[in-house]
Amino acid sequence: MARTLINLDPDDKAWLDREAEARNLPMTELVRQAVHGYRIRHESQGLAGLQAALRRTAGIWRHGDGLSHQQRVRDEWDERG
User: Fold this and answer.
1) Which domain holds residue 47?
2) Which of 30, 32, 43, 46 could form a disulfide with 20 if both were Cys (CB 3.0 to 4.6 A apart)?
3) Residue 67 covered by a domain
4) N- to C-terminal Cα distance for the chain?
């Protein structure tokens, strides 16, 4: 495991110490878990996240041709501009 030195705001460090104690974990383990969770959330927003969003939203537009609607809306923008 690589060692890393970081600087934290005093309030953040105090919170981290309290949270680690409340969870009965070493502070270093809590930081590892937090970084890992952040990485997983960040990576899931990449291509896999996009694909999941497309699956969840596929077929929700039920008002005809979506491309035609989009063009009409954009034409309205041009008329106002």
Assistant:
1) 11-57
2) 30
3) no
4) 57
Q: How far is the CA of 34 from the CAs of 27, 58, 63, 65, 66, in angstroms?
A: 11, 33, 43, 44, 41
3-state SS assignment for residue 19: helix
Task: Report the pLDDT averaged over residues 51-76.
Answer: 88
Q: Contact 46/31 with Cβ under 8 angstroms?
A: no
Residue 32 resides in a domain: yes
Give yes or no for residue 19 having a pLDDT over 80.
yes
Find the length of the chain: 81
Distance CA(66)–CA(9), nearest Å, equals 49
Q: What is the mean pLDDT of residues 27-55?
A: 86
Domain count, the chain: 1
Contact 40, 46 (CB under 8 A): no
Within-domain flag for 73: no
